[in-house]
Design goal:
globular, alpha/beta, single chain, about 230 residues, Rossmann fold, seven-stranded parallel β-sheet
Length: about 230
């Protein structure tokens, strides 16, 4: 039975990933800060294991990695994320910016390090970092979103580094733009549902090869500029 660990699993894209993989018979480790408050997670059956996890807490991440022991992990989906608002340059909230970086950039690197042995012991050996087109330097024509844009641009560099480091052992790392999704962050006017986004992202993940590692893909399947 293949296995996947999803962060930010209590709502939006994270919950849609959990539901999709569970429906296909995967063993799913669903991680969020308050899993007991998410009834949908509790109703998904015995192959969905919920874990209390603050991705910015190094001790919690290490404890979770130890608790899984020698169980191989086929896929790590670093989905947990924070938005940074649309502040003007004169109104930047630097305390929040630090929090956004901690969740969106540092946490995925932390989890990749903690679960590297489990990932490399599996068949698929894949890390999927949920990024954003707003993190693309080449596509930025509108400015703003300083905290969020910078956190995702940095996450893209983390992804490239992971691809280089994991390649000798056959590991894969990719950055994925999920589209404009109807989540708490995307808002009700967004163009696609979490289920539509996850279905498209899964098609990308299911077909990944080692040669594609280190790239930045849109949910539509095409590469995005760095």
């Amino acid at each position: 039975m293949p296995s996947v660990l999803v962060t930010g699993a209590n709502r939006g894209l994270g919950l849609a990933f959990v539901e999709s993989y569970a429906a296909d018979g995967w063993r799913v480790h669903a991680c969020c800060r308050h899993p007991e408050k998410c009834r949908p997670l509790q109703q998904l059956g015995p192959d969905v294991l919920t874990h209390r996890l603050d991705v910015t807490d190094g001790l919690q991440v290490e404890a979770l990695a130890r608790s899984l022991g020698e169980e191989p992990l086929d896929l790590l989906i670093n989905n947990a994320g924070l938005g940074g608002g649309t502040e003007a340059l004169e109104e930047l909230d630097f305390d929040r910016w630090q929090r956004v970086l901690a969740v969106n950039t540092l946490a995925p690197a932390r989890l990749a390090g903690a679960f590297r042995p489990a990932l490399l012991a599996s068949e698929k050996r894949t890390i999927a970092n949920i990024s954003s087109q707003l993190g693309s330097l080449g596509d930025n024509e509108s400015g703003g979103h300083y905290a969020y844009r910078s956190s995702k641009a940095a996450l893209n560099m983390v992804t490239r580094n992971l691809a280089v480091d994991l390649k000798p052992a056959g590991g894969i790392a990719v950055a994925l733009h999920p589209g404009w999704v109807r989540t708490d962050m995307g808002g009700p006017q967004a163009s696609i549902s979490p289920q539509e986004s996850v279905a498209a992202l899964r098609r990308i993940l299911d077909g990944l090869t080692l040669e594609q590692s280190g790239r930045f893909y849109s949910w539509r399947g095409h590469e995005l500029p760095w």
